[in-house]
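Encode chain A's predicted structure.
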Amino acid sequence: MHVTHLSCSACAASYAPHRLHNLCTQCGKPLLVHYDLERVAATLQQDRLPARPASLWRYREVLPVVQADNIVSLGEGWTPLLHTRRLGEQLGIPQLHIKDESCNPTGSFKARGMALAVSMAKELGVKKLAVPSAGNAAGALAAYAARAGLEAYIFMPRDVPLANRLECERTGAHVSLVDGLITDCGRLVAERKEQEGWFDVSTLKEPYRLEGKKTMGYELAEQCGWSLPDVILYPTGGGTGLIGMWKAFDEMERLGWIDARRPRMVSVQAAGCAPIVHAFATGASHGAEIPRPHTLAAGLRVPAAIGDFLMLDILRKSGGTAVSVSDAELLSAVGEIGAAEGLFPAPEGAACLPALKRLLQQGEIKHDERVVLFNTGSGLKYLDVLSGSVSV
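Encoded structure for chain A:
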């Protein structure tokens, strides 16, 4: 709507707006969308937000869709920020909250990114979309592509949770199950996209999913009364949500909505697939690909992330950290959160609880701080995993 240009997150090469883009053609890194925030401020004002739709589209001026009739929506965004008092009492943290992304269409935060990616694909004339996915991104693409009348081609590991496969098939997507990991699925998309005429909407390999994910940052600030929490714990596979929120904080500061203070950002990963944790601990700027990744939390089974350098930079700039937890810990946490608060989190979101416990024990998080955990999806998508009928 008010996009001025796109730029490479690594080499800063500039790209024209309102055109199809994947990665930077000069260095192969993700592109970022930039806005004329002075023009944005003329109509996007804090005191007028309560009268706007209770969806991510309330922040329309900092989203890239130009024509309103190109918006593809299922009611995504404006998920609850829940004050988890009972869980907080158990841990001795009076100001503990969970941002519950399971309330999104298709049951996960992936709906935010795909709403923007599909809307922009529609606006730019794309007819066929393809994605490699560990599960929830596939379901979201299938749903939004169906809503838009576009074709979706999905590549998923064969051991993906059953709910993810079924929702893709039932919403009309072309589903291919792959004997391998999400990286193997990604290679297949890359090899075939030119011949098949697909536009690749892989994580950070097109610039607009990030714009949908960043609205979590806008919502969090608004729900917190424009005073950001002290700490955010976020489960990271590809890491688009963490990167998107950081972008949102920067935009809001430039709009004059928040000050320069930032939360300490914590990347939470599974012990069997923790490239960001290893890179952070060793001072590396990029993560090394995990050779034999394993975890029951499908969304965390990402052996290498193209945006790893962005995540690591954010963790260090914010004074945050990266923590890995075992499958036993994250599965136990599903029940702990459920029993205390009545939520049924996905294993990825539940992983934030044992990470929080560890950081409290180590003194890296104080009991009087405001802490937000992100539950990125619904446990209903993982019934086969949580019932013990799937092993990874």
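The chain has a mean pLDDT of 96.
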